[in-house]
């Protein structure tokens, strides 16, 4: 599926694959639309999801809403480049793509998240 990511027209599945290829500790890379639907990418092959598919739907909808809500502060603070949460089992990162979509990434907790986040920014900008 080809869509705009950042400024150019790219294949969204290829973008997700490029993110997964950055580090074996990345479990999931997917593009979520403004309605919270997964439109490209997914779980690294050979891994089992930590949540049920129904939980994924809720997670993605909540993520889309959270990204939209953060835009309220763009004028004062500047646009969000990425957000990161460290959970007990995984690290999750979200990268707003500027086209009402967001790249959602989850990874093992021992990921060098600062380095990987900067590499992901290079891919999506």
Tell me what the structure shows.
By secondary structure, the protein is an alpha+beta fold. The protein has a single domain (2-110), classed as Dynein light chain 2a, cytoplasmic (Beta-Lactamase, 2-Layer Sandwich), CATH 3.30.450. The protein has four helices and seven strands, in the order E-E-H-E-E-H-H-E-E-E-H. 28% of the residues are buried.
Q: What percent strand?
A: 25-35%
What structural class results from the helix and strand content?
Answer: alpha+beta
Low-confidence residue ranges:
none
Strand order of the largest sheet: 4-3-7-6-5
Total beta strands: 7
Helix content: 25-40%
* CATH fold assignment: Beta-Lactamase
Tell me the Rg in angstroms. Answer: 14 Å
* CATH homology-level superfamily: Dynein light chain 2a, cytoplasmic
Shape: globular
Question: Given the structure, what is the number of helices?
Answer: 4
> For the residues shown, what is the average pLDDT?
90
How many structural domains are formed by the residues?
A: 1
CATH architecture verdict: 2-Layer Sandwich
* CATH domain class: Alpha Beta
Order of helices and strands: EEHEEHHEEEH
Distance between the termini: 18 Å
**Mind describing the biggest β-sheet?**
5 strands, antiparallel
